TrEMBL record, chains A, B:
Protein name, UniProt field: Cation translocating P-type ATPase
Keyword hit for Protease: no
Natural source organism: Afipia carboxidovorans (strain ATCC 49405 / DSM 1227 / KCTC 32145 / OM5) (Oligotropha carboxidovorans)
Gene Ontology molecular function, alphabetical: metal ion binding
Segments traversing the membrane: none
InterPro entries (UniProt xref): Heavy-metal-associated_CS, HMA_dom, HMA_dom_sf
């Protein structure tokens, strides 16, 4: 399992954060996503054998949010 | 082309509405989606030959919003 933290722009409220959490947690291979509106970040625990980091970025960005950094 | 209006619960702000708009407009067969946070609704213009109404409901609900009525 691997954890990646994504810095995200475009969240406007806690509901936005929850939207991202639910979208990411529906992806296969993702165990948990902690998304914080206050910090503008998502910390995702996932199996890198099942899903690539790039796919996580796509999932976050699909509704219009922007991933501006990751580590 | 067909227009369906969905009543949606769970939107918290304009960014939530924009999130739904972008997700729905990425679906094949959808021409335009007008989503209003104030009204709690989405009006979607789409080609019913390309996408079923049920699929639109799934798309709206995937991040956790709830479709409570449609016409």
């Amino acid at each position: 399992m691997k954890t990646t933290t994504f810095k995200i722009e475009g969240m406007n409220c806690d509901a936005c954060a929850n939207t991202i959490k639910k979208l990411v947690e529906k992806e296969p291979g993702v165990r948990v996503a902690e998304v914080s509106f206050d910090e503008g970040s998502a910390r995702v625990l996932y199996d890198p054998q099942s899903i690539e980091e790039e796919r996580l970025v796509d999932t976050i960005q699909k509704p219009g949010f922007r991933v501006v950094a990751r580590d």
